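Anyone? Bumping this.
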Amino acid sequence: MKLSMWTYEGPPHVGAMRIAASMKGVHYVLHAPQGDTYADLLFTMIERRPSRPPVTYTTFQARDLAGSTADIFKTACREAVERYRPDTLLVGASCTAELLQDDPGGLARTLDVGVPVVPLELPSYQKKEHWGGAETFYQIIRTLAGNRERPADIAPNSCNILGPSALGFRNRDDVTEITRLLERNGLDVRVVAPLGATPADIARLPEAAFNIVLYPEIADTAARWLKKTYGMPFTSTVPIGVHATRLFLAEVRALAGLAEMDEGDDGTDRMTWYARSIDSNYLTNKRVFVFGDASHAIAAARIAAEEMGFKVCGLGTYMREFAREVRAAAADLGVEALISDDHLEIERAIIEARPELVLGTQMERHIAKRLRVPCAVISSPVHVQDFPARYSPQMGFEGANVIFDSWVHPLMMGLEEHLLQMFRDDFEFNDDAQASHLHAVSPSASPSASVAAEEEEAAPVPAQGTAEDDMALWTSDAEKELRKVPFFVRGKARRNTELFAESKGIHPITVETLYDAKAHFAR
Amino acid sequence: MTAVQNMPSRDPGQDAACRSGQLIRERGQHEVFCGLTSIMWLHRKMQDAFFLVVGSRTCAHLIQSAAGVMIFSEPRFATAIMEERDLAGMADMHDELDRVVEELLQRRPDIRMLVLVGSCPSEVIKLDLSRAAERLNRRLAPRHRVLSYSGSGIETTFTQGEDNFLAALVADSGAQPTQAPPASLIIAGCLADVVEDQFGRLFRDLGIADVAFLPSRSSEALPAIGPDTRYILAQPYLGATAAALEARGAKRIDALFPLGEEGTTAWLKAIADSFGVAPALFNRITEAPRQRALSAMAHYRPWLEGRKIFLFPDSQLEVPLARFLYREAGARIVEAGSPYLHREHLAGELALLPDDAALSEGQDVDRQIDRCLAADPDLIVCGMGLANPFEAEGHVTKWSIEFAFTPIQGYEQAGDLAELFARPLMRDVILSGTRRPAPGGAA
Ligand code: SF4
Ligand code: SF4
């Protein structure tokens, strides 16, 4: 048993739903109790899709347990096929139905529904959402693209894009961006899957020269199988960030047998110049804590270190399946990888790392909010606001531009930071005045009603918490001096000073201590 | 088990006989949350309680996604996620649960009441949580009290989780050794604090003393119940709670539910009559708030009058909501669906529904969608999984979950309640730019 207040991933059948909802002509019959239908709203509400996901639930109840839940499953299957007329039927069980051992796959076969049936065995008590998505994608491909004849004359520049899916972080825009980029480079993108693919498209996968794995979390298993079965090579670089996009293009061009590209970008990369421009000077060595799914976290850490000039003070993922890759990336950056899906542990790591910016998931956004540290979301799990209306890819050169903006905005603008320092006694810059661009990421610094309500809601500070409650730690002079530090760095000043005082055994903290600590932590 | 008891199978024909309206009983895919979801408001109501779901990753994901847990830094609920090796041996399972509880209490020593919430998987494998609660109680009392109930989706829908929790509270209050004198009136059903306070003031002015709310805001203030206790339901989904209260000797005051001016007046009047409050006093005390409710309502009535409204089953509030819409807003009810109809508690409400309104109990969501589209209503009240797809097809919808989360009971909320229905219609007019004939006044 595992105590969990938040989960980074849903159960594996939610992963399967993401694949079903990505595709056209696929329907998923899920043996599950009524509450499990909540998963629909991940798509209709969080992702704001205009249609229900193609899932029929059996909705069995306690009183059915004595009779035959298998019959309920069969009826649901038959009716779903009649009503939705899918080209392919997925069948499976959620965690409760798994305990009933009705064997949806076997039952569906006896029904002879007239369309290919993909039985999904997703062990709910062992595996999680991304694994379920990858496994489902792989099973669909095995069923629909197995036993094919690979054409003799395959154009070497033909490729498929694998991995983008419903509920993925900015996947829809990434596909647009990468497809454009590939086409400009003379590649011919045949099938994108699962997002937007039909079962017929899946059957055509072996007709391309190679595969592009955009999201290893979903596509890795499938790409490996296609390689083993049809000898199709696949890419290993995820094109997030300017460097990675260049590497990716080189890799793709090599696979397609195209000449190496001359350096020089195609004019869409603004990120490189922006990071170099004088206004970005204040970004130098800002401490950044990175946490998310494996691909986004690794990419974000590299961008942070190499392209933004930040200092990565933590890197981790909640996906054990990709621990090796994340560990390697962390080692490159001189930090130790944090592989955990226990958000309390991640909170502790963040507090310890004292970052000035957190790049994480929805969970880290809340941790950061509580610690008053700016934060940008870089990975699922996400919230409705992470499905923006505007075009905002993460991949390719435009993706790098988007990333630059969305990471820098939560931080102070360079010039403005100096102004605030200079004019901190000015009435417009006093403690209650909010920086104009900060509201989206950081709660009001003034004790407004909403903050008060939120703090009431928040848990008592954990033992290793910010210790902001222990006022007696500070002399009143030191407290007053601390108030002079601009609010957006005050939290950090307080934490640093307390850390310093604790390590030196100083009590209480005086004005002296405050400045000693400032000197100590100066870089 | 509890919910099965909640669902006395009665002869539907007999009830349908009182109305000529259609009664549809359905069995198919339900598009309704399970009882775990009620933790969302219960944990806010009772701030020293902590709800520990003993379930699967699905349960954890449900309460997180469905209810916007993500808004809070750290919620007062969690899931003990069962894993593969737990399923192997039941004996270890209890040890595991104890370990998780220990871990939790270490982190949150402020928890006064720990509530173990059963889920589908824990019930299917027959993990006995009431035994676990007893065992933990022996160890942890009096510092922490431990209760249990089932919020599983195979036994409860959405609001019935609250019903089971309240029934567990009632049972527990009987087990508590030190007892204050029994309350004379118990208001059963979660109400927003502001609503509770409003009612509290009205009771005081009416001279009714010793009124207790169930649940109370603190786990320590649970009411004592005795044969002199009368109780009234503030929510229509409290079958098990009512049974538990009656088992302790309390007697039910029958009334409409306190939605809208009419419902609130009827509800208060039933209480007042039961306590022998003079009609003149009653009129004097309720006169001003009644007028306020009516004038607030009047503002929205033009938006709702004559509109066809279809209510999908969700919170079991549907019947009183339909009554309110029909009687006070002049709307036409196409269908009022409810996961389950407690016919005795709803008798007064059902009698006030128009004859041509179809009533449905249970759900087959696909068929219901067909009926809804065929009727082409002006407003569809439905759950979160259905709303956007309907909107995308050009229908105007209202999320039913808001009725469970928003203060809607009582005089001062009558206008708010009407506005919840009117707002999507107003929005439609704004966005579609077609200045439809209607709505004067409110804009
Ligand atoms: S329906 Fe059952 S398994 Fe699903 S979330 Fe609710 S309690 Fe958990
Ligand atoms: S906060 Fe999240 S769960 Fe709640 S309504 Fe908004 S999107 Fe839905």
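Late reply, but here is one note on the structure posted above: Chain B has three domains: 2-28+297-441, 35-152, 185-295.
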